[in-house]
Amino acid sequence: MMLWLTALAVVVHLVFLKAIFDVYFVSPLVHGMTPQPMQGEPPAKRLVLVSCDGLRADKFFEKNAEGNYRMPYLKKMAELGTQGVSSTRVPTESRPGHVAMIGGFYEDVSAVTKGWKDNPVDFDSVFNQSRYTWAWGSPDIVPIFSRVKTSSGELHRIPHIFPHTYTSEFEDFVASPIETDFWVFDRFTEFSDAAKKDPALQEKLNSDRVVLFFHLLGMDTTGHTHKPQSKLYDENMRLIDERMRTLVEQIEALFAHDNRTAFLFTSDHGMTDWGSHGSGQVEEIATPFVAWGAGIARNRQMVDIEQADLTPLMSALLGQAIPVHSVGVLPLAYLATSAAYKKSSALTNIKQIFEKVHVKKNQKRSESFAWSFKPFGKMDEDELKARLMALEDATSASADQSAEEILASLIHTGLEALTYYQEYDRNYLRCLVALCFLGWMVLSLLQIFEGSSGRGASAHWSVKRPFLLGGIAASFGVMTILVAQNSPGIHYLYTLLPVLLWTIVLYKIFAGRFRLRDAGPMLLPAATLALGTEILVLTFFYRPAVSVGMLMSGLWTYFTARHLSTRLRLAWLGTSVLVALFPLLPVVGSSRNPHLVMIAGILSVVAMGYLHNMDRQFLQWDLQAYGVTTLQILVVILCSFLVVITSNRVDAHVSPGTYVHVTSWVIWGTGFFIPFFGSTLLLWRYISIASSLIASYLLMSVSHEAFFLLALIVHCYMWIVVETQHAARRPVLRNMTIFDVASQSTFAEPRQPNLDDARRAFLYLFFILMSFYGTGNIASINSFDPAATFCFVTVFRPFVMGLILMCKVAIPFLIVGCAFHVIQAVCQVPVQTMSLIVMLITDFMALHFFFLVKTEGSWLDIGTTISHYLMVMILTLFTCSLNLISSLLMSKHVRLLDLNTLILKSKK
């Protein structure tokens, strides 16, 4: 592919990847709002917020097998106050969950990429509005709310927030998970004892608007490691319940039982049955919420709330301003205060929300022409002020009851207005992105036709000039309009990019470099690709559809490759059926079974030996290659046993040991380099790479996914054999080495693309999708089990674990990529043509998913549509780099010592 086209492809697809966040998921944060203070005497002087990370609502509210509640003390407190389900939103991760409950707003989906460590406070929070806040808990959560970034970019601690955290080494998956929670409770005991002897600290604690925050990580760690259905999960719930009783007694004693303390117990997110979270399943978004103490009403019925509603509730209990970024709605049913205070608090909630609406409205107005700006139509500011004044003047009981209904209506209208201005530019940006997609796809098609017809010469300047000047004039006109209406920066990007793409397209069409008759031979392949792409889109919604597609791919040899031997066609169909079984199995992660991993390792050794024996007749005797093969077989056997040893020691709450971790890291690190020392024959190199990668994959496996990788390796081997024999290139496959010109970056001179090329590109993408669907679900990363990292690390290391996860996901890709590299080399497939066809398919799929993205409805549906688009776009970018990585693995060789020459000399 030409350099300019490659660079343009990278830029365009990075823009496409960014587009979903700019169009659908813009950060809800805006600045410039004026805090709205609460009016009246608050019911509580202090508030205790306990966040039990990863606690599921059903586990809290339902009884166990013996008919008892798992947290009896907290259930008793719930009867003295109010309880309900607090619903969070995707991504169901710790940072967004705590931001919602303490900041009052839901971060955009990209917030999960902001990391966990040392996040600066770039939003208002209950802690920020308090007079004093003391916080104990995880170093991944507490610092989020205790630091502020200055204008110079430096981080400073907020003076009135006092964080207390343990070190990250304390978050050990092997040690008792509840130890982190005991640390929190023990540190508060020490704090309480110190406060009794410190008059200055006592004075601060006896102030109003005091918050005590406790973050308990133990349940989250327990669920990840041992799953929510385990006995240990129930046992740790009981232990936390006992320590909560002690904590409440200590707090009441510290403040002399003055009945001015409000207690809130909740969770940031739930957890699936297989111990993960991040998506939108009911078990993940439903969390328990219990409130009792000062200002809390006693309700016999459960009162469910949204997670962001905790923020205005805490603000009303303490009598402080609601954080300015909050979109929470004050749940009046939780308040046991006078009607006047309820109404005043609700009015403050409305004013705070409409203050945000006012700022958002002015922001959008400043970015538009006066004649083109369309304000929210249901209510203007004058009408709002009149209705608020009428509510403030209402005094009778009936008026108060009517006022509550009007307040609820106003808040609903305010939230609608916020949504309207949040999505104000959406349709405009969607049209621009669609133009970018279409422009790029048309340009790719033209490039394919141009390369295959041999018309690649540059046109004369006299031909280029009109298009160049026209493009410059169009860009200048667009920029003039954008500058005049003070458009945001992203509008420049999404408006100028389609101008550039369509200028190039028009140049190629009208400058005589493309002729309509050139497209004739490509109509049938294009129609076939379009139909196949629609099938690929369908597989994203129905996981078993991947199995159906796999079976159909196994049958193509019976229609268009009948000249192949019956034995070969049956073998191809057999491996297709074998791989097709895996999407029908449960998603990996629901349970751990290290013995399945060990069996898969043994079968891998058998398969490796069989494949090497089959190809022995093709190879020259090479002692170095033979030694590498023997080493790889021994490493696979070692990895099989390491997985079992690690699992047994983790179950016994014992660290696997330094030798296990070091050995695993060495195997993982050297697995990508060992094939460089193997044979130089192209097919043998594929087998060598597969042998090394399966060893690393075994160390990251927890169940039957190791069988899937083995089946995929064998199937890709059969794909190589079928394609080479179909192209009558079997002799070439036997003798081709990695040094042959045909196996390097340019496999053949440009030629007319045909149906075989389209089929190869389609199967390439389909097998990559199979790599996702074979053991999991690409709608989320929920199939990832932290147990997959235990051979490498047992202490919580999010970035290290993320690296291991990415490697586990990438290994099946590399298998498919290396097999495709062999096919390209042996069958002399033009690299540029194949790359463009692959990009065309993925871009066509991405265009579907871009318009299928949801921002309303169930959060499971929203998260799924986001995942679909991101996965396809990442796939588009990844296939480009995958070709480069596969080429590197398949083309490098290191010769330590020419043992063959030494043996021949010794014989002489």
TrEMBL record:
EC number: 2.-.-.-
Cellular component terms per the entry's GO annotation: endoplasmic reticulum membrane
Keyword vocabulary terms for this entry: Endoplasmic reticulum, Glycoprotein, GPI-anchor biosynthesis, Membrane, Transferase, Transmembrane, Transmembrane helix
Chain ranges of the GPI ethanolamine phosphate transferase 1 C-terminal domain: 416-858
Subcellular locations according to the entry: Endoplasmic reticulum membrane
Membrane topology annotation: Multi-pass membrane protein
Keyword Transmembrane: yes
GO molecular function: mannose-ethanolamine phosphotransferase activity
Listed InterPro entries: Alkaline_phosphatase_core_sf (IPR017850), GPI_EtnP_transferase_1 (IPR007070), GPI_EtnP_transferase_1_C (IPR017852), Phosphodiest/P_Trfase (IPR002591), PIGN_N (IPR037671)
Database matches in SUPFAM superfamilies: Alkaline phosphatase-like
GO BP of this protein: GPI anchor biosynthetic process
Enzyme class at the top of the EC tree: transferase
Main location: endoplasmic reticulum
The organism's place on the tree of life at top rank: Eukaryota
Transmembrane parts of this sequence: 427-446, 467-484, 490-510, 522-542, 571-589, 625-646, 658-676, 706-722, 761-779, 799-823, 835-854, 866-885
Pathway the protein contributes to: Glycolipid biosynthesis; glycosylphosphatidylinositol-anchor biosynthesis
Family, as annotated: Belongs to the PIGG/PIGN/PIGO family. PIGN subfamily.
Primary role: Ethanolamine phosphate transferase involved in glycosylphosphatidylinositol-anchor biosynthesis. Transfers ethanolamine phosphate to the first alpha-1,4-linked mannose of the glycosylphosphatidylinositol precursor of GPI-anchor.
Stated name of the protein: GPI ethanolamine phosphate transferase 1
Organism: Ramazzottius varieornatus
Gene that encodes it: RvY_08089
